Amino acid sequence: MTPRDVGRRLAPYAFPLAASLVLGALAVRGILERAGRPALPLDDAFIHLQYARRLAEGHFFSYMPGEGYTTGATSLLWPLALAPLHLLGLRGLSFVWATWLLGTLAHAALAVEAGRLARRLAGRAAGVGATLMCLGFGAFAWFAWSGMETIPFAWMLLRTARVSAAYCEPDPRAPAPGRRHAIEVAAFGLLTPLVRPEGAVASALAVAALASRPSGEGKPRRLVALVPAMGPLVVPLLHLVIAGHAASSTTMVKWLPANPAYDRAGVITFVQSNLRLLWQSVLDGGEWSAVFVPENFLVPTILGVGALVFRAHRERLPWHGAFVLALVLATALPCTYLSFLWNRVRYVWPFYGAHFVLLACLAREIGGLARRFGKTQAPVTPIVLGLFTGALVTKLPWTLSDLATSARAIDHQQVTLGFWARENLPRDARIGVNDTGAIAYVSERRTFDVVGLTTEGESRYWTFGAGSRFEHYEKLSAERRPTHFIVYPQWMACPPVLGEELHRETVVDQSILGGPTMIAHEARWDLLGTGALPRVATPEGALADEIDVSDLESEETHGYARLGASDQDNVAVMAEAPRGEEEDTPPAEIADGGRMRRSLDRFSTNLAQGRAAALVLRVSADTDVELVVRAGGIEVGSARIPAGPWVERVVMIPPDRVWARTELEVTPREGGVFHAFHYWLYQ
Fold first, then answer.
1. In whole angstroms, what is the distance from residue 249 CA to residue 270 CA?
2. What is the DSSP-derived secondary structure letter of residue 412?
3. Which of 235, 351, 425, 635 has the fewest C-beta atoms under 10 angstroms from its C-beta?
4. Distance (Å, whole) CA 282 – CA 274
5. Helix, strand or coil for residue 590?
6. Closest C-alpha among 91, 97, 37, 86 to residue 416
7. What is the pLDDT of residues 528-564, one digit of tens each?
8. Is 610 exposed, middle or buried, given 0-12, 13-18 or 19+ CB atoms closer than 10 A?
9. DSSP line for 489-505
10. What residues have CB less than 8 Å from 613, skipping those under 6 apart?
């Protein structure tokens, strides 16, 4: 390849790169002015930096020194792309410049790809317009300099769609697709899911292109199509081989179909709610996207779908139209996430480049209609494209201000707390965190991710709620437990393990943080196990069985029916020991996990058949309630529960209602709800 050929290939990137450099300079200047040093607007970006640093140090996706492989990296390729820049000498917060550099390049490249797709479908003016809309779109600017993989991923999606469509429908002015083109299609189809799991969409496009189009000799390239088909399988197989399970911790926490705390009905309800928000707010410039998207922008997007179909039909480019439409429809994929609205709705924007191709097609059709029916020679298509671009550009000042404000917030809270931990906590400290990025990266202390993204085995307990986490902590060995916590107390929602407050950082005038105040605590573990046995109600006989509500293993062993219980109703309570019938409980403090607002508890117990049993209940209620106990479907007794704190009551089960496996039910007699914490059976 001659220098002239290289120049010809790079020429389309000149203006977009210049525009991205100018926009990047404005974004970085705003961040440096407000934060006072390199900063990033999302804590998750520091997770990538931590993984990249560990890779550069020779540890394959280990998050902490001394710990092995973790499945918490949402992106494999983004940390791998950053790691060489760490090796070149970027350390500490200077490493942020690496993300800004790659984000700038991806921002320009994304605009080029959108322009190329639009130009093929709707002409040169449409291509220029799509490029300008990408460059002027606030969400692309925000995330290009956020430290996240969002914009590189968006570029790879559009690039895959374009090269796949061009492979099926070659440009008559270009050489016929050959082996090199097929390799590019296969490579992007394989690699895009390694940037983000939603890249499986790109894999599907690449597979469709390679499997359907004959080669020059008329033979299908079906074997080559197997390469991109492997793309979505690489990460799960890697997890399976190294960690022993295919699902990542992030998948369990954030993807509703894989979240064990949601049943089918709960998943469907949540996804439907997200779809309504996507349609009524996010795509229309509502409250969740107003910083990026002009108000009522959904209308031209919908019209653009029709324009795309018409242009694809008129230009005889059905593959181009289908692949662009596939990316547009894939915008709904993030609606399956529990975290759909988090972090400026960041999961939606990688698909949004295809929306600008729709708008470019719409502008072309409006121009065509104006010439046909309006008898005008005015440049209607460029004017319409200018209006779309102008509407987007008006959001840029707000976008860049929000980017800088958010970066300042993360810097003044998580990053500052990380530096505090590095200066004030011992080297062997283990910090429990619910934002696992900046504190781990800056403090250089081991962390315990209570959410479970970067600490293997914790995600399951996070998904079910605080009560299950507390019960789980009771079983953890002392060396695995955190020595300190730096958390949002309201998110942690587990006061029994939060000890003396050591430090706090409060940041106001922001909307990106999980709360205005994050607090550093000593960890306390003295309340673990204090709720393991009845404190007042102690029947005769030996303990035969125990159902520890919120303890996931205990619940599963006893077939405890959760009945769609939510994680918000799964709580860890710290209070005085329950009262007995005489209310003479000593003022000891205990802690126990439990489930709130229960209308029915159903579980099975292991008992000696034919021997009477005493059921001890630790429960509470907001209003006076009578709880009925049934064994094998027959009422065997009841207990009156006064409104107020938890109490313990005993209900006798006669011998003729006791089997080796006895199913018990506890339910209010006349409706209402109660709060369940523990059940014991004595014989």
1. 20
2. I
3. 635
4. 10
5. strand
6. 37
7. 999 999 988 888 899 999 999 999 999 999 999 999 8
8. exposed
9. HHHH--GGGEEEEEEEE
10. 544, 605, 607, 652, 653, 658, 662, 681, 682, 683
